[in-house]
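One example given next:
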Amino acid sequence: MTVSARSLLDLFRSGSSRSESQPFERGLAAYENRQYLEAFRLWRLASEAGNPEADYRIGLLYAKNEGVIGSLPDAVAWYDRAALSGHTDAQFQLGLIYFHGVQAAVGPNRPEMWRQSTAARLGDKAASVHDLVFPNGTGVPRDLDIAFLWMSVAAEAGKAEAQAILGDMYANGQGCARDHATALRWYQAAAEQNAASGQFALGDVHYQGRGVGVDFAQAAAWYQKAAEQGHVRAQVALAFMSLKGTGLPANAEEAARLFQSAAAHDDTIALYNIALLRLSGKGAVKDLDKAETALRKAARKDYLPAIQALAEFYALGTAAEPDLREAAYWYEKAAERGDAQAQFFTGRFYATGTGVAPSIRQAAKWFERAAENGHATAAHNIAVFYLNGNGVTRDVATAIKWFERASEGGISAAGVQLGRLYSAGNGVPRDQARAAEWLSKAADGGDADAKTAYAVFLIQDDPSEARLAQARTLLTDAAEVGHSAAAFQLGGLHMGGSGGPVDLPAAAQWFKRAASAGHVEAQHSLALLYSDPKSSIKDAQAATNWIVKAAEGGNAAAQFKLAVMYCTGQGVEQDLAQGVTWYEAAARQGHTTAQYNLAAMLGRGQGCEADPAKAAEWFKAAAEQGMVEAQLALGDALRAGSGVEQDRDSALRWYRQAAQQNNEGALRRLQAMGESVG
């Protein structure tokens, strides 16, 4: 104990005479009748007569906002009077207040707000006004030295709660040097008075081995004593020990009982853990509704594990169907708390519009935050955003930075992207050596897509015999694990691509592997291979089957080919309406000849009702892509006013474009319209 604390204690023990207690007792009666202002008046009289209990009671009125304007600084002034007269409870309250400090409340009608506004208005004169209106100030700064002094005095006087807190101060070195032996002595003093806080502290001492050897059995015994008195933290600690069988036999049912008891007092950790037990049915009856309620209570207390668990609860639809709006809400809460995985999920929700309104900017924000917290997939995503300018300003240098971070985190696709960027010189100086380095590194990770990308790079960069052999090995490895793009590339190599030997059966085999896995380009290539009259493996029926699959898969060239087949009756029964359908499918994907053929059929009403206006639109689409026949047809339509408003100047413009390619028909039309063709 410090000298100053000992001196104070000696002063208190000397005592001082108390005046008559009649005003004080009348004040007690008034207080019990909730006549707080009358109690205040009577206790003021008792205080003036030297009654420290009255001083303490007035301090409580200020602390509780009863009969007077609530003010802890004013409470401190009255506690101080009582404490200096030896009032133990007042000493303890002072210790608590100085230990925590009291921040001045800011808001409408708050003293601190008034103090700030007067300071702004009155300047130097404000201090005297403040001293007059708020003689004790509007806050109490935290002061561990003063807190230690008063807590020591109260503890020496036998206040059990003060003894337990003083033990904490010695254990943590707050207001004094850290001293586990002295802390233990004060904890024991509190526990001897059956104080739950002291018993709980002794449990912690033995559990953590603070100043004594670790003794789980002793820890459990002290936790048990505190828990039986309703000490919530002790109940939680004992519950964990019961659940894990630490220091006492494992007992999930007892753990659940203790967690539930603490949860009834809204303890956050207890709410979370009883929810987990009810979700699993371990130690408690499985009850998803009660589990959800407990998780929600803990989550609303801003407890991150509960927020994470609640988000997953709704995302997976643990109790019923998934509720993605609720899941998105709680994932974003976890994201705001800095959880990287939740930030990634939140970014994905905004990117896809899952449970929230879609927002590329929000997606970019959360992906970048997750990436900054080390989430590799998020780093890859935000790199793609910077590369394409999605939700952020396009910045290739920043994209490369995040691709590199993602690659370091094991995302092989990031290495592939880096390789492609350096190989193409997309936003960075073209550097084939660096491209090869990144692609090779990604391929070494074993990812099939990375192997395929590296193989394609090797073939395109330098199709030497050695590189072709290396590429075949990479592609074969990838294809053998079901990577359809690798099988497609192998098919191309066996077709003689990049100067390799031609092996049509092998090409068909690899194309078929990819095609069977849904690779549309492979389906189209296989159809062409089977339909080639010069091919040794020609198969008309197989060609038709694969061209249909490729067309249905969205391949524009296959759609055009199928349209031709329906229009000519080649390999299928002739059906002009089907021909129009497939021409239109290909035309919408920008297939120039399909656009022209569709326009011609619409103009003539073949397989459909004649529609000159639509015909003119498709002629224009093909003409804008440079097709001479379409330019002539569009010029004719404009000249005649067929499907469009007659426009001689526009017709001449399209004829001239066609004439630039020395088209005889265009030249004749220009001459017929009296235009120079020189």
User: Anything to note?
Assistant: Confidence is low (pLDDT under 50) at residues 13-20.
